[in-house]
Each structure stands twice: as structure tokens, then as C-alpha cells.
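Budget justification note: compute hours in this period were largely spent on complex prediction jobs such as the one shown. Inputs:
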Amino acid sequence: MHRLAARGDGPDLPFPRHSYPGPVPVPPDAPDHPDYRFTLANERTLLAWLRTGLALVAGGVAVATYAPDLGVRWGSAAVALSLVAIGLLTALAGYRRWRANEGAIEAGRPLPASRTVPAVAAAVAAVVVVVGVLVGVEVLQR
Amino acid sequence: MTAVETQPERTALAWQRTGLGVLAVAGLLGHRALHTGRPALLLVAGATALLGLAVLGALAPRRYRQVRLRVGHGGAVRDPWAARAVTVAVLLTAAAAAVSIVLS
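Corresponding output:
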């Protein structure tokens, strides 16, 4: 795992950071708060997660609006609501991840592990399989 | 030093994209309201559009000013309130989408 040093990581170091065997030395004038670049990077990651959630929500609305008849009765609404629910949970997971990262950055610890990416991928894959089955049903009914 | 100059800007652009994302969902909800012949659902779409405008027009510029000011003074740029506010806006957008799907 990539180790992030929250303090003292800056252009003032006399050598590249990776050439230090131990913890990154803290310059004597280091402020008592983490490097703002870590905070902003973490904030952008939160916003990226929120946009991923929004894209899933938009996909759900699009399914309900533009594919209202999907295989079985309620098929379209079920797929649409699943996508919206996955989007909502993705946004929540992104917020939880942001909070965990903030704690780690504040304390100068490495960022905690997260299973959000595989979880969202698995959920979307499951929805795609269901959509495939529904389209198959739709085709066979003709 | 380029990184110092561009980081707040990149973050501001990420905020703007998020606000635009909420507005895009609002647009889809508005089109859905007309498409399904339920003009009452336009209220849901309108409320979502207001959320998007709040992120794009209030949260994003407020945060950008705050970050630039604090970076200039060498202070901490953390703002849990802004993170919470934009998360709530996205959760409300998802709830509005669910309402629009169920009620038609």
C-alpha cells in the first residue's frame, strides 16, 4: 500500500522522498496541520465518488423513462430503483471513505483499506446480468 | 510552484462538475415528468434543480474562496461542513429520483 506522509512532504526536502529509509523528516518550521494538498486530494476523491453515485442515479432514471417495458411487469422499475439505490449507497460509502481518510491524514497514518470499489463493481455487474435476462425475456416474448 | 497554484483550482472544478451532475439528474427528472404525463413530478425535478444550483452557485464558490484564503495564510483547509453538505445534496437527489420512479 502506498504510504502517505501527511506532514513534512514538500519541495523543501533535500533529497527525493523515496530515498529516505525511514519516516519523512519533518522540517523544523512544519505547521501543526497536514499538507493542504492531501486534504484537497481527499476532497476531490469524495466528489468523484459522489459523481459516480449521481451517474448511477441518472442511469436508473434513464432506464425507467426510456425503457419502461423490460421483460416482465415491474422489470424496468426494479432495475431503475436498484441503480438508484446503488448510487445512493455509493455516495454514502464515498462519504465514509472521506471521513476515514481525513482521520488518517490528520494522524499521519497510511490511508485505510477499502472494499467500496469491488462492492460497487459487483452490484453494477449483478444489475447488468438482470438486465440481460430481462432483455432475453423481452425478445422471446415476441 | 505549479502544484500550489493549480490544486485549489482542480478542487473547484471538481465541485463544479458535481453541481452540474446534480443539475443533469434534475434535467432527466424534468424530462421524465413531461414524458410520463405527470406534471406534478415537475416539482420533484425543480427541487432537484435547486439543489444543483446550490452546489454550483453557493457551495462551490464559497469553498474555493475559503481554500484560496487559507492556503494563502498557510492554514488548514479542512471543511467537514462542506463535505457533509454536498453529500446530503447527492443523497437528496437520489431520493428525488426514487420518488420520481415510484410515482409513475
